[in-house]
Each structure stands twice: as structure tokens, then as C-alpha cells.
Sequence to fold (144 residues):
Amino acid sequence: MNNDQIFSAVSMLALCSWLLLIIAPYRKLTEKIIFSGIIAILSILYVYLIVFHIREAPDGGFNSLNEVALLFKNPALLLAGWIHYLAFDLLAGLFIVNNARQHQINRWILIPCLLLTFMFGPCGLLLYVLIRTYKARQYITTNF
Fold:
């Protein structure tokens, strides 16, 4: 598979995962599929891309914005960055669902949070934190 094909495949995989999270958020099977299956696959692909392509961007790095930009000029490393976003946004989605289940938040309230997390990561998480804070009447608790 080339990078474009991997990009399309992982994007479709992530889209299907988000649909599953939205349609059946409180099912244990949803969590198992996403955490043990999808996120594991994304993580393996990420490691593969980093290990076999990091040497292709010798001037790139993580010490400055310029170095990060140099890393992302390499298509394989840009793809690794995209997969990184997909995996961690899905983890944020799983956190939202698990936390909402723990605090008995209606699943319909989660839909905007999950959609925002899918599209804009931290924006959806922030919306959930605000909703959770309102529902629990506490910002930070031991059970957050």
C-alpha cells in the first residue's frame, strides 16, 4: 500500500469507529473493537511509519516548530502525524463515553461532544468537560 492508500484506509477506519461510538456508545463491544482493534492497528502503523521513515528527515525534530514542519514535509511522516491524531482523538472519544457512562450522562448529549472531538479533538473534549462539570456540579473530582 502506498501512503495515499494507507491515508484513505485509516481515515475510513476512524470514521467507522466514530460512527460506532456515536451509535452504540455504552456497549462494551464498542470499547473492545475500538481500543483493542482500531487503536491497536493505528498504533502499529504509526510505529512502522516512524521507525522506517524518521531517517528521511534528518533536519526534522521536536525541538522547534520549524523542526516539526521539516518532519511533516516528508509524506510518510505527515501520514504518521495524521494517524497520531486519529488514534488520540479516538482515545479522547473513549474517555468521554466511559466517563459519561460512569456518571450516567444521557448518550444523546454525547453526540455533539463526539462529533466535535472527531473533527476538532480538544473542542469536543472541552464541550464534554463543560457538560460534565454542569451535570456533576464540580469541575474536578476524584472520579473524573
Remarks:
- The mean pLDDT is 92.
- The two ends are 41 Å apart (CA to CA).
